[in-house]
Amino acid sequence: EAQVTQNPRYLITVTGKKLTVTCSQNMNHEYMSWYRQDPGLGLRQIYYSMNVEVTDKGDVPEGYKVSRKEKRNFPLILESPSPNQTSLYFCASSWRVTATDTQYFGPGTRLTVL
Amino acid sequence: GIQVEQSPPDLILQEGANSTLRCNFSDSVNNLQWFHQNPWGQLINLFYIPSGTKQNGRLSATTVATERYSLLYISSSQTTDSGVYFCAGEYSGGGADGLTFGKGTHLIIQP
Lengths: 114, 111
Known about the structure:
The complex is a heterodimer of chains A (114) and B (111). Helices cover 0% and strands 50% of the residues of chain A. Chain A has strands at residues 4-7, 10-13, 19-25, 31-38, 42-51, 54-57, 65-66, 76-78, 87-94, 104-105, 109-113. In chain A, strands 2, 4, 5, 6, 9, 10 and 11 form a 7-stranded mixed β-sheet that branches. Chain B is mostly beta strands.
């Protein structure tokens, strides 16, 4: 089954404790990206990657890191999480090297930083 | 970046009713997509519609790129249509390759 998977689905952590949210897709998509969703703000892009070893900042990249060592995986890293990073996070992928193709979303990761 | 405005922000309807959701863009967009987020948080792509009209069952969408808006039509609403509907587009003027989302229309279909 074609899908985008994220882990964990739910995470409660404390300020400053490094964490990684994994994202994997099995569709051989070139483009992958991370979004955060906050009440009243919709979805905002954090980082995106057009291909292996190619990543770039989205609208709200502060406090986040990403890597794209393999085509299928695009982990989101919070080196020192803070309470304002409490949010619902989505990973997405698409066929082509831009976001203009149909986006497929993962199930979401609900993160709470205390 | 571009601004994406969706209307109405909230909509409550009875089962069987029809509805029209609107999405306006502040500038030209290369492509436009509509998504549905169900009450469990899952985001599903409904339409990839840079221009013209598409239909999928009870749902259809129309984008008028020259006037920078898109409409999503839902006919004969069912309770499973409840959730938040987002539109998103990418600025055609170049720069960062990312979708800008609207804040969504929260739709509640009552039985």
